[in-house]
Amino acid sequence: MGFKRTGAILPLLLAAGMARADLSPSTILGKVSATRAQGMGGAAGAIIGDPDMIWANPAASYSHKGMLLTMEGQKGIFGQGMGQVLFVKSWKGRPEVVSLGASYEDTGSVVMQTVEGMDRRISLQKDVLLLLGVTLGEWTGKPYGIALKALRSEVLGQYTANAVMLDAGLQGTWGERVKYGAAIQNLGTRLRYLQTAYNLPACLRAGVSTEWKWGGRMLAGADVDYSWNERLTGCRAGAEYTWAGIAAIRAGAKVEGLKGFSYSAGLGVLAGRYRLDYSLEMGGDIGYPQSLGITIAF
């Protein structure tokens, strides 16, 4: 059983949102992000000590102690969905921290007509992303980490492509309050659907953050990233205020290439070893405006 005009539809789907033929198709890469980070406009590259930020910088889990499990989900306005899970573990007396993560995205489905004249619903695109990350202690006094990722992408329920890639990052401090981070992401093979290969959205990211006491704890950060295949620059900024160590309110904004300007807000509730996060994004592309996550420390 085949589909009419599939040969014409597939290139259109892969080219959606791309201005030149060498750009990567729309995949889960660049979308997966911690709920806490989304509430801060995505400014997560220089947030130290929160392993959930490994999606932005693989050095983020350096100072974590013990075990941690995070489960998060994002919902789109057209029913598309994405979710991720992250498990992090450190060992007493050793500087290494290991992270295992997985993320899944389903962009929805359409009804297409088969060659027999029957209507059949098929999925537009499904992506699975796996991650293995490790922080390796300190290098010239700066914590650093690497993450190996594997991606499987499927479009129209029958065309698949695979890719493997590497992230690397470091973080450090200037003085007592200012922290910085830098990472390179998505260096790897190309995604090949049928006879067409696409570059991954490889990018450089750099960020700074600072925090101070103001009744509670105030954290502010900003990131800049550059994707050289797309030749696009993104800027992100956000802040978080935590009161009494039990509740947090967040806000942020970002300008992300062709996606335009968006702003976001978020909430966090901390109770012992549990943390619940929620974020809402407005403006920009259709994306995933709402995100909910729960983190459990063991």
Report on this structure:
This protein has 298 residues and is mostly beta strands. It has a single domain (20-297), classed as monomeric porin ompg (Porin). The protein contains 2 helices and 18 strands. Strand 8 and strand 9 (178-188) form a beta hairpin. Residues 1-23 have low confidence and may be disordered.
Defining key terms:
298 residues, two-stranded antiparallel sheet, mainly beta, disordered N terminus, 18 strands, 14-stranded antiparallel barrel, Porin
Topology, pairings included?
Elements: H1 6-15, H2 35-39, E1 67-75, E2 81-90, E3 97-106, E4 109-113, E5 119-123, E6 125-139, E7 142-155, E8 159-174, E9 178-188, E10 191-193, E11 196-198, E12 203-214, E13 216-227, E14 232-243, E15 247-256, E16 261-271, E17 274-283, E18 290-297
Antiparallel strand pairs: 1-2, 1-18, 2-3, 3-6, 4-5, 6-7, 7-8, 8-9, 9-12, 10-11, 12-13, 13-14, 14-15, 15-16, 16-17, 17-18
Structure summary:
Helix content is 5%, strand content 59%.
Spatial shape:
globular
The overall average pLDDT, rounded, is 85
**Roughly how much helix do the residues carry, as a percent range?**
under 10%
Biggest sheet, in brief?
14 strands, antiparallel, barrel
Please give the radius of gyration in angstroms. Answer: 20 Å
Stretches where pLDDT is under 50 for at least 5 consecutive residues are 1-23
Which architecture does the CATH hierarchy give at level 2? Answer: Beta Barrel
Q: How do the SSEs run, as a string of H and E? A: HHEEEEEEEEEEEEEEEEEE
Secondary structural class: mainly beta
Distance between the termini: 51 Å
Q: Treating each run of at least 4 consecutive H or I residues as one helix, how many helices?
A: 2
- Counting DSSP E segments of at least 2 residues, the number of strands comes to 18
With strands numbered from the N-terminus, the spatial order across the biggest sheet is 1-2-3-6-7-8-9-12-13-14-15-16-17-18
The CATH homology group name: monomeric porin ompg
CATH class: Mainly Beta
